Amino acid sequence: MEAVAAAGVRPDGVHVPPLLLRPVSTDDVAAVLAHVAVGLPRFGVLEAAGPEELRLDGLTAELPAVPDRPGRVVADPRAPFFGAVLAERALLPGPDAHVGPHTFAQWLKSR
Fold it and tell me: I need a surface site. Which of 5, 6, 73, 107 has the fewest CB within 10 A?
């Protein structure tokens, strides 16, 4: 999120796409990987997600410090996400994703 915010700094605010996502903590990803490493072989895609569906622009506004942030966060549907313009739901996981317990607020508090 910080990299996307830093890339979106403009004179009138931080432009980020209004994407929905389920942010997942690195601790939760590590737990999923540990289970996979000691379990039976898996094939295909393994998704990990956090417990909350949130918008990127809202999350960006809660970040404690974005370098050179000129103030407000602007939900800009034309703002790229690592070079690509995405549909609002493009980053949401599928129904079989492993869902971790840690919320975004918990992650912020632990920083």
Answer: 6
Helix (H, G, I), strand (E, B) or coil at 57: helix
| Per-residue model confidence as pLDDT tens digits over 22-80 | 999 999 999 999 988 898 777 788 899 999 999 999 998 888 766 555 678 999 999 99
Which residues are bridge partners to 13 per DSSP? 10
Q: How far apart are CA 73 and CA 66, in angstroms?
A: 10
* E strand or H helix at 7: helix 2-7
Exposure string of 13-35, with b = 16+ CB inside 10 Å and e = fewer, is: bbbbbebebbbbbeebeebbeee
Nearest partner of 21 among 74, 94, 97, 93, judged by Cα: 93
Dihedral (Cα; 32, 17, 53, 31), 10-degree rounding: 10
Sequence-distant (≥ 6) Cβ neighbours of residue 45 within 8 angstroms: none
